[in-house]
Amino acid sequence: MSDTDTRDPTSLRTPIVAVLGHVDHGKTSLLDKIRGSAVIEGEAGAITQHIGATAVPLDIISTIAGDLVDPDDFDLPGLLFIDTPGHHSFTTLRSRGGALADIAILVVDVNDGFQPQTLEALDILRRSETPFIVAANKIDTVPGWNPNEDAPINDTYESQSDRVRERLDESLYEIIGNLSDEGFSADLYWRVQNFQRNVGVVPVSAMTGEGVPDLLTVMMGLSQRYMKEEMEIDVAGPGVGTVLEVKEEKGFGTTIDTVLYDGTIRSDDRIVVGGQNEPIVTDVRALLQPRPLAEIRTESRFEKVDEVSAATGIKVAAPELADAMAGAPVRVVRDRDVDEVIEEVRAELASIAVDTAEEGVVVKADTLGSLEAMADALDDAEVPIVRAEVGDVAPRDVSVASTAEDGKQKAILGFNVDTLEDAHQRAEIEDVEIFTDEVIYQLIEEYEEYVEGIEQAQQDTILDNITRPARFRILPDHTFRQNDPAVVGVEVNSGTIQNNANVVKFAGNEPDRVGQVKGIQEQGEDVDEARAGNRVSVAIDGPTVGRQIEEDDELWIEIPEKHAKILEQELASEIPGDELEALNMYLDKQRSRDPFWGK
Ligand code: GDP
């Protein structure tokens, strides 16, 4: 017999399943439904509540799935569902290779279709290369739906009217189309031949349970077919896991809720945990699991266990965990060299570490994984990061942000974190902007809008202080006063005449300053400026009509060379077209004498 044949089947671990999707599309309901069905089918106790996860064993799955699943076709032990749905926990749960979840369910409301967090979840799934299926949820809300509790989709579909089927099909094809727009080739799951190439869409109702048998069947089949090798673990080996959450627990101090994805952890193990500063080396004090419901009245919600093996969720109580981070690795030392294990943890942390620049914004996130996701998204948006850390926005973050030279970078972007009260106060004093959101791309959008606002304001102030180009002509028979100042009627050909600007006249291409605008009147009223097309009277201090200037002369507002440069290089897209035309004609004249003028 070969090795393969003698392998203990328990050496195949349970695939870890995460549920993602837009808010209110039914992630929690779907998990509840699966758990609920599992409890009913298996009577009490068949499903095990882990810390942060629920294990649904194969025999329960096959009971729920009925004819769809023959347990003999499978040798994976079942599915482990992570209890907290959403991409936060998904990104937290990372392992050496990327995502910790082996497979994901993306929940999409059939009525609501693709929404911002659907896209964000897809993006995360794409980046982490996690296989997933789409649960097209809430099919029971299709008008006219005839519900069949817990039925497989084919049975319930058959019992619907043509009209209802058409409506459902339309919604499903829209979802398939949306997936395709995002670069995922998808189809209804029963049409999918190769789940590695195509995303299967499973119509379900978390309310009535319709389609849930199909969903479980597809998940099981997909894991069995494509992930069996990855599920092979050394059951007796030292455990490897990820911190899901760091929690104070009465009587136990700081504990880490951990998802173990390889090996075992024992209550007398020494472990190394990723910390804020350095890897933490500590000894397990207790391994805790939730007490079964029946015993919940006893003194503690938890019961101590001696050993657990992957895949599982477990609460680990140990000293010195205060610095542990959600998303950080946990490794059991056992008979290994502790320094080697520390190195591994350090290397893993480094691989998640975000590249920072000399200048940039401050980024805070709730977990290492989400920090990484934020960094990726900011990289795409070409926003540099000066500092990236897990944790709430604190006063010292404000101090770092306040040192930015570029006002646009005096900003803190907090993803799924709180802002401490004194950080708020500090930010007001230091003029630092704090953005927080629970959707990465909305957070980045908010920041980008802020940056645009600043840039606009900067350009507006520059424009306020810059001489605007103008070309204008003295109208015949419109000399109202000869000199001191000369007052003439003009027509503005292009650009903007502003009060106090200097006026030049070109003799050939040689500019000659003739005076300064000392008042503009339009139909007898004083105005500050005259735009292209306006006919106004202008007082020009300096020249005498008939000598330096004459009726029908073409005159220009003089543009200082520095201003011409800013206008051409930075503000060309900001100023009106006619002003740009005046500028270009002015530059042509100047540059025909001096090709480098204004460059
Ligand atoms: P989550 O934010 O994605 O976890 O969504 P929830 O599970 O909290 O569901 C949001 C709302 O949709 C709740 O009011 C649910 O009762 C409802 N809901 C979820 N799934 C279904 C479904 O399949 N059918 C119907 N009719 N309502 C559903």
From TrEMBL:
InterPro entries: EFTU-type (IPR029459), P-loop_NTPase (IPR027417), Small_GTP-bd (IPR005225), T_Tr_GTP-bd_dom (IPR000795), TF_aIF-2_arc (IPR004544), TIF_IF2 (IPR015760), TIF_IF2_dom3 (IPR023115), TIF_IF2_dom3_sf (IPR036925)
GO CC annotations, alphabetized: cytoplasm
Residues holding GTP: 21-28, 83-87, 137-140
Span of domain Tr-type G: 12-227
Ranges that cross the membrane: none
UniProt keyword annotations, A-Z: GTP-binding, Initiation factor, Nucleotide-binding, Protein biosynthesis
Family: Belongs to the TRAFAC class translation factor GTPase superfamily. Classic translation factor GTPase family. IF-2 subfamily.
Task performed by this protein: Function in general translation initiation by promoting the binding of the formylmethionine-tRNA to ribosomes. Seems to function along with eIF-2.
Name this protein carries in UniProt: Probable translation initiation factor IF-2
Upper taxonomic lineage: Archaea, Methanobacteriati, Methanobacteriota, Stenosarchaea group, Halobacteria
